[in-house]
Design brief:
This protein has about 140 residues and is α+β, with helices and mostly antiparallel strands. Helix content is about 35%, strand content about 40%. It has four helices and seven strands, in the order H-E-H-E-E-E-E-E-H-E-H.
């Protein structure tokens, strides 16, 4: 029995209709992502400089140069470039196998935008891009 149908519905909507971004805790050279093939996960397509990874059922896009927004109270304050690989899961995909293959092959951890650490890494990388440094 569902005790809070509105809350439960919002969880279903987030899980099945929206996207979730992930970033690696260490930089992954994008040219290595473009030829990725490990544990049943491979490159399906490269389009506009972005890579589509698939396990033949689910998929994740990997973006080489993303622009990320900064929000305050749900209002967009600024947009800045993000240097690094940004992995995105859309819709009802289950990216578990893809994430595990990427983490195993590159010895990284993919961090979801739902984790606090995600925003610390994004802020640090955006700052270095704006200042002209590397990470």
């Amino acid at each position: 029995m569902i005790k809070n149908p509105v809350f439960s519905l919002s969880i279903l909507i987030k899980r099945f209709n929206m996207s979730t971004d992930y970033i690696p805790d260490k930089n992954i050279p994008f040219d290595e992502i473009e030829k990725f093939n490990h544990n049943g996960v491979k490159v399906e397509n490269i389009e506009d400089g972005n890579v589509l990874l698939t396990d033949c059922v689910n998929y994740m896009w990997v973006h080489s140069k993303a622009v990320m927004g900064t929000y305050k109270d749900l209002e967009l304050i600024s947009m800045e470039p993000y240097e690094g690989s940004l992995f995105t899961r859309y819709g009802g995909n289950d990216p578990t196998k893809i994430i595990e293959a990427v983490e195993d092959f590159f010895k990284v951890r993919l961090i979801s935008e739902d984790e606090d650490e995600y925003y610390k890494i994004v802020s640090r990388r955006k700052f270095k891009v704006i200042k002209g440094g590397s990470f």
